[in-house]
Amino acid sequence: MPCDLVLFSIGFTGPDDMPLLPRLGLERNPKGSIGCGSDWQTDAPGVFVCGDAHRGASLIVWAIAEGRSVAAAVDRYLDPAGSTDLPAPLHPNAVPLSA
Ligand SMILES: Cc1cc2nc3c(=O)[nH]c(=O)nc-3n(C[C@H](O)[C@H](O)[C@H](O)COP(=O)(O)OP(=O)(O)OC[C@H]3O[C@@H](n4cnc5c(N)ncnc54)[C@H](O)[C@@H]3O)c2cc1C
Q1: pLDDT < 50 positions in the chain
Q2: Containing H/E element for 70?
Q3: Ordered alpha helix ranges (H), 16-56
Q4: How far is CA 9 from the centre of its chain?
Q5: I need a surface site. Which of 14, 50, 51, 92 has the fewest CB within 10 A?
Q6: 51: Cβ below 6 Å to ligand 1?
Q7: Is there an atom of ligand 1 within 6 Å of 92 CB?
Q8: Quick one: pLDDT at residue 50?
């Protein structure tokens, strides 16, 4: 179809490259997102990841649940006794239920 200008406004393309990553010594994985251990901590000590940056382009409910889980992980990380009372609804490897 002939036209003068095409603008793509698609979203859902996942995390972008950003200067912060190489400064932290982090790279995006083959999925394009940033990996973490079971404690939500990236390969950069004390740096945690959640939401689309961790999961790739996803949904708000996952971002909220991951955000709450990371808050608990950070609280545990900062607590000298390594404990937290915050809810942690998700493990980083959690996937949606399939039908
Ligand atoms: C077009 C579109 C439609 C969508 N529709 C739906 C929908 O209907 N329902 C649904 O559930 N989900 C929808 N989603 C997905 C949903 O928006 C995301 O899953 C959710 O917003 C992810 O939340 P987040 O906090 O992980 O990331 P984001 O909401 O992307 O928040 C990341 C924040 O970090 C900021 N940031 C980035 N780099 C830096 C930096 N270096 N320093 C400081 N701040 C920084 C960004 O500005 C941004 O505010 C949609 C997404 C798109 C793109």
Answers
A1: none
A2: helix 60-78
A3: 20-24, 52-55
A4: 22
A5: 14
A6: yes
A7: no
A8: 97
CA 80 to centroid of ligand 1, rounded, Å:
32
> Distance from the CA of 18 to the center of ligand 1, in angstroms?
15
Q: How far apart are CA 44 and CA 66, in angstroms?
A: 18
Nearest Cα to Cα of residue 24 among 40, 41, 7: 41
Q: How far is the CA of 61 from the centre of ligand 1 (A)?
A: 11
Give CA–CA dist 6/3, Å, rounded.
7
- Could you state, in order of their start, the residue ranges of all structural domains in the chain? 41-99
Does 59 sit in the ligand 1 pocket, CB within 6 Å?
Answer: yes
Q: At 41, give phi and psi (nearest 5°).
A: -90, 135
CA of 4 from ligand 1 middle (Å) equals 30
How many Å separate Cα 95 from the centre of its chain? 13
Cα 11 to Cα 14, 16, 34, 58, distances in angstroms:
8, 11, 18, 11
CB of residue 17 inside a 6 A radius of ligand 1: no
